[in-house]
């Protein structure tokens, strides 16, 4: 499948009002890290780079993990860039901003 960039902001609802949703988000980022795909954590979303089918599988796994942790519902906001011929890459899109500025 095509090379893609997928940015996700996962917003799980906490099981109890006093629960910290950051613990859920930390679990989602652990799943991305364990997947082996290239990724960059940002303040509002995390961007992954790789095969489109693989990235979508990771999103599914992240959502399942939120329910395993006890979340009653999950909202996942996704941005997707797919390039069929030359592939999408973070390095290419960020080449003008090597220092992240």
TrEMBL record:
One annotated Gene Ontology cellular component of this protein: cytosol
Superkingdom, taxonomy of origin: Bacteria
Residue stretches making up the Thiamine-binding protein domain: 7-81
Family of this protein: Belongs to the UPF0045 family.
The protein, known as: Thiamine-binding protein
Native source species: Cohnella rhizosphaerae
Lineage, broadest ranks: Bacteria, Bacillati, Bacillota, Bacilli, Bacillales
């Amino acid at each position: 499948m095509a090379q893609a960039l997928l940015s996700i902001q996962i917003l799980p609802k906490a099981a109890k009002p006093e629960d910290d949703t950051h613990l859920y988000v930390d679990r989602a980022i652990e799943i991305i890290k364990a997947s082996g795909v290239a990724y960059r954590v940002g303040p509002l979303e995390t961007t992954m780079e790789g095969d489109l089918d693989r990235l979508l599988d990771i999103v599914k796994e992240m959502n399942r993990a939120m329910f395993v942790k006890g979340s009653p519902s999950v909202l996942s906001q996704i941005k997707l860039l797919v390039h069929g011929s030359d592939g999408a890459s973070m390095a290419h899109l960020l080449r003008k901003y090597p220092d992240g500025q």
